Amino acid sequence: MLVTILNIARIHHLQNDIFLSLEMYEEALSIQRKTSSLLDISTTLVNIGRLHERLEHLCEELGPQHLEVSTLMNSMGLVFCQKRWYAKATASFEECVCIRRLALSIADRDMATVLYNVATAYLETDRFDDALRTYKECLYHERSNSDSIKSDGVISTLLNVLGTYICCRMNMTPRCVTFKKQ
């Protein structure tokens, strides 16, 4: 199984699908830490490092403020969130937001997605004020790019904002608030 996971990771790497490659290498590393030698673990760590090297090359090739770099930073943030490495995830998402703000002067739907991701990372680390502020900004971007108030996730984002606000004010964790479908 481990060899298959490593091969899949390598294929994704060769296809420049850094998000999936990093995810597979991280899965392999998790297995190796339980069953493999230090040499095998170090090889996987080198491969993970190569993905970060790809990010450096992308920055060099296109410039650190290119939207492609922003997309990669968002993808890396998602991987970090999946691993519950919220500090790294937040840093990746925040860098993505900075790049998008510099590159685009208008509200865009992709920015709403990234803001949702960073707000969720804030929420997971109990940074409620930051989460609330960022969810509100996400809502602005979604509304600016939708034909109807009920389109694609605007309502769910609003519920997240309200739920976060209620939880902050009642000193509750957000996971304990449930909204009933009417």
Automatic annotation (TrEMBL):
Segments forming a coiled coil: none
SMART domains associated with the record: TPR
Gene3D superfamilies membership: Tetratricopeptide repeat domain
Pfam families: TPR_10 (PF13374), TPR_8 (PF13181)
TPR repeat start-end pairs: 112-145
Entry superkingdom: Eukaryota
Keywords assigned: Repeat, TPR repeat
Stated name of the protein: Kinesin light chain
Upper taxonomic lineage: Eukaryota, Sar, Stramenopiles, Ochrophyta, Bacillariophyta
